[in-house]
Amino acid sequence: MSEPAGRAGEQVYDVVLHVNGVLRPASVPARRLLSDCLRHDLRLTGTHVGCEHGVCGACTVLVDGRPMRSCLMFAVSAQGSEITTVEGLGTPDDMHPVQQAFRECHGLQCGFCTPGFLTTIAAFIEENPEPSEEEAREAISGNLCRCTGYQNIVKATLRAAELSRDSPGEST
Amino acid sequence: MKPSPFAYSAPTSLADALSVLAEVGADGKVLAGGQSLVPILNMRLAAPAHIVDINRIPDLGFVRVEDGGVRVGALARHADIEGDDAAYGALPLLRQALRLVAHPVIRNRGTTVGSLAHADPSGEMTAVLALTGGSVELARQGSSRTVFADEFFLAPLESAVEPGELAVSAFFPSPVAMTGTTFVEVARRHGDYAVCGLAAMVTLEQDGTIGQARAAYISVGPTPVVLDLTEAVHGQRAAEADWAAAGQLAQGQVDPEPDIHASADYRRHLVGVLTARALHEAAGRAA
Q1: CA closest to B38 among chain A residues
Q2: Domain A12-87 has CATH 3.10.20.30
Q3: pTM for the complete prediction?
């Protein structure tokens, strides 16, 4: 705990978050959403913020391997958990199978919703390595995309599962 | 779209949590999964002075098959219960309903006990608790009490949890033998709030005729509506029972409100159609 900052009298907490394998300190008020902490305090702007009430899915990150809405969690609650953001999935030279599949299948247009889809699908194909199309559709039903019409995202989901099966151990 | 400032505690034991809740009283709000609470805070529909985050309390995340049913702790996430095969074996209705609770990602964080305490009239698990005759264990500093479903849901978004209390677990009794269950609902989009939905339970007699048919409805009343529809189908054989008659019986006993998603008439129509569909399906699983 340190001196109050920002709004007068609001307590600030010193937290250490485990993000993409790195311990990252931050000083935040209790009400700081995990999404805002990632973006503003830790400068990890890959996590996008759309609706801020859990509907759009753009802010989805992995918490201890499970996809969750970072806009519906407080940074102070996330201490002690392992968080994976889209930055932790892969790099341009070494893409995660989901990222590779999105590129191959044209699974994005403007890209705003993409980080949330990538994290959601990365966890989904770990849990279900051979999804049916119907299962793939259900898996992404909590993520909104206003560009693609979803068809190519469904294809990318199935392709990502295929790529993961072909190269086991490469997915996170 | 940011919460108002609040004081924050993250107790690491149940005793500490009850002590904080006793101290802050009506100013306190418990944070478990937060999948209903945090949107409310973000939209500033509520601004509690003190948030008591129970996520650091160990041993509250259990899903336990006990004698006669399934007990789940305050931190058991919907997904934990949905994926628990022993719980499914003891009460298939849990998984049947949980599959319809929001989206998989929300179920990873949201808790079943929290959703009961939230008492949203469209919350699937409220109907499951009501239909099974389940109960919620409420603890406060120095005492605890068990509240059964028929006294737990008081009004929309209002449960029997009082200031200073924590809902520590919920118990869902298993049905008797020869009982089948299902949960069906209609929503505008998969994962959205149901326009109308119901948990159904049909029990057969030894000779295969229908002994009992009951259902609990969401989104058609201020709290889950439990109806005994046995008289419409009693003694009939499951394969040729007059499920439509049970649907009509149910329609006459609900009084839904209209909103921007559906008119009252449409909801009543759905009660008829979905009742027939659900009871038929439940009966098929009862044998």
Answers
A1: A72
A2: yes
A3: 0.95
